[in-house]
Amino acid sequence: MSKNYDFVVTSGGIGPTHDDITYQSIAKAFGLELKLHEPTVAKMKKYSRPHKSQPNFSWDTPSPALTAKYRMAQLPLDPNIPEEEQVIYVKEDLWVPLSVVNGNIHILPGVPRIFEAMIEGLRSRILPRLKDPEGKGLYRMLFSTPLAESEVAGYLTELAAKVEPKGVKVGSYPRWGKNKNVVTLVGKDTEYMDSLESEVAEGVRGKRVIVEGEDDTDDETDVKKDKDT
């Protein structure tokens, strides 16, 4: 993937336990050594706090817990690439490093809120690399449907074939535990796409919405318990 794509992301496997082997695995794949990254250790000491179950933890006293913490600061580093291009801190008070390998593999944590914060912190680095950084070139239409994905699959297959010559993509997304799913049309020909609104709404027995879930109700008796959605 590093060879075929501009931007590669991994998620998880960079914690302190034995099964956190993302750093080791990627280092092995690219013939790199794992090195204790002292700036990361310093930030870890400054911004992380021992768990309440570790009242006697000390950064100055060797212990299994300290060894485990240091696993999170052992990064795959290439001596031929400037360190600042391999280790990025997206926020001053977030000690978790963003390790970059081979110029385009970005190793992120699996904790959702930290993952999100780090992606958000990368915004200024990512946007200039996009062909359409502001998303102005794409138009997205959302349709809410009470039907199961399997029920609309046939219609969407026909619709996708019809609109493909116009550069429009059709998507279908189940919403677990909700009584309505979402169908999307994405493209650039806004006039043509808008002309399809009534047809698509009828085809999925639903309606166009602006925001996913805007027509949800609290009446759980309407939930379609179709296992294939």
From TrEMBL:
InterPro entries reported for this sequence: FLAD1_M, MoaB/Mog-like_dom_sf, MoaB/Mog_dom
Give the source's domain of life in one word. Answer: Eukaryota
Ranges for the FAD synthase middle domain? 145-207
Molecular function GO terms recorded: FAD diphosphatase activity
Q: Which GO terms describe its biological process?
A: flavin-containing compound metabolic process
Q: Where is this region: Disordered?
A: 208-229
Composition bias (Acidic residues) maps to 212-221
List each copy of the MoaB/Mog domain by range.
Answer: 3-123
| Gene3D superfamilies registered for this protein in UniProt | MoaB/Mog-like domain (3.40.980.10)
Q: Which PANTHER family match?
A: MOLYBDOPTERIN BINDING DOMAIN PROTEIN (AFU_ORTHOLOGUE AFUA_5G11210) (PTHR47675:SF1)
Q: Name the chain's protein.
A: MoaB/Mog domain-containing protein
Native organism is Cladophialophora chaetospira
